[in-house]
Amino acid sequence: MNHQDIAAVRGIIRSNRRWDLFFAAAGFVALLLGVLAFVTLFGQMVLNGWERLNPDFFMSFPSRRAANAGILSAWVGSLLVMLVTAVSAVPLGVAAGVYLEEYAPKNLVTDIIEINVTNLAGVPSIVYGLLALGVFVYAFGFGQSILTAGLTLGLLILPVIIVATRESLRAIPVHVREGAYGCGATQWQVVRDHLVPYSTPGIMTGVIIGLSRAIGETAPIITIGALTFIAFLPASPISDTAPFINFQWLTSGFTVMPIQMFNWTSRPEEAFQQNAAAAGFILVFMTLMMNGLAIWLRYRLRKSISW
Q1: Are 45 and 281 in contact (CB under 8 A)?
Q2: Spatial separation of the C-alpha atoms in residues 30 and 26, rounded to whole Å
Q3: Are 206 and 165 in contact, with CB atoms under 8 Å apart?
Q4: Theoretical Cys-Cys bridge with 219: which of 90, 126, 235, 291, CB 3.0 to 4.6 Å?
Q5: Do the Cβ atoms of 48 and 273 come closer than 8 Å?
Q6: d(Cα 78, Cα 98) in Å, to the nearest integer?
Q7: What Rg, from alpha-carbon coordinates, does the chain have?
Q8: Cβ 129 vs Cβ 219: under 8 Å
Q9: Are residues 139 and 19 in the same domain?
Q10: What's the CA angle centered on 145, arms 275 and 120, to 5 degrees?
Q11: What are the C-alpha distances in Å from 257 to residues 149, 202, 217, 262?
């Protein structure tokens, strides 16, 4: 290679480095704008609602008087709805992801299913609300209940869990499968003892991110008839008599945090706007905690895995 060729190569390298710096700077600016926008909105909610963040706000029912209004029924309803969502979506989503990735034959039908699952992850949430209104409320007769809300949000996050499960399984090195099969393991043993344990960090991350999305959804909950003002709590899931489990709460009316915020923001009084800001801060904090839990679980589980 002569001097001219060396100079040309060096020029190409310098040009590529300049483009690398340009894209890195552009990405940093984009990230900074997003973070600043979030911090600004979050800080505004904190400033507006800080006076209402006290124990009475958490332990009081909604009221027509802003000073006496609280979020007791809203946060309890959100937790119960999330419980139904997790129970209905997580096992089904993980099982469907494992089947599509490890067991399903590679044919046209499977390809169509995979395409539809991926597309369903981007469908607007109001579509799921309309589907639930026709199926769960009217066809199955579940009514406007916690069970209907949980199943609706379960359908909403089901594609996210399926996709996360499949991507986690694909990330496992191929030598794990080959080594297990080489030792005489069956396909079920490979999946149960190797693939699912090794992919658990990615699966848990997808599950918690899906639940974080579900806890803030408003459109499908409004569509199925969530109450905007509720001054009572559902029946307790735990009973004092055998078998110590009560399912009456599944058919109870409910409200959730986003609905309570919507109700308060629709009122002209400034005090209700403060209540909405305080509830928004709590909802964002819950979402951040769930995402933080996902990061922590992924770190801990990956640290405990050795290939």
Answers
A1: yes
A2: 6
A3: yes
A4: 126
A5: yes
A6: 29
A7: 25
A8: yes
A9: no
A10: 90
A11: 13, 28, 9, 9
Kindly state whether residues 34 and 86 are assigned to the same domain. Answer: no
Report how many domains make up the chain. 2
Placement of tokens 């009316």 in the chain: 253
Collapsed DSSP state (helix, strand, coil) of residue 76: helix
Do residues 287 and 206 both lie within one domain? yes
- How far the first Cα of the chain sits from its last, in Å, is 44
Q: Locate tokens 């559902």: which residue?
A: 234
Measure the CA–CA gap between 4 and 129, rounded to whole angstroms: 66
Range of the structural domain that residue 40 is part of: 3-50
Per-residue pLDDT of the chain (307 residues; tens, 9 = 90+): 566 666 666 666 677 777 788 888 888 899 899 889 888 888 888 888 888 888 888 888 888 888 888 888 888 888 889 989 999 999 999 999 999 888 888 888 888 888 888 888 778 888 888 888 888 888 888 888 889 999 999 999 999 899 989 988 888 888 888 888 888 888 888 888 888 888 888 888 888 888 888 888 888 888 887 777 777 788 777 777 766 777 888 888 888 888 888 888 888 788 888 888 888 888 888 888 877 877 787 777 777 665 5
Helix 270-304 with 3-49: angle, nearest 10 deg = 130
| Adjacent-strand bridge partners of 245 | 238
Backbone angles phi, psi at 238, to 5 degrees: -110, 130
Question: φ, ψ for residue 233 (rounded to 5)?
Answer: -105, 150
- E strands of the chain, at which residues? none
Q: Are 158 and 117 in contact (CB under 8 A)?
A: no
The Cα 194–Cα 230 span in angstroms is 48
Q: Indicate if 118 and 146 belong to the same structural domain.
A: yes
**What separation in angstroms does the CA of 28 have from each of 17, 24, 25, 40, 41?**
16, 6, 5, 18, 20
- Please choose, from the candidates 210, 284, 218, 294, the residue with its C-alpha nearest in 3D space to the C-alpha of residue 39: 284
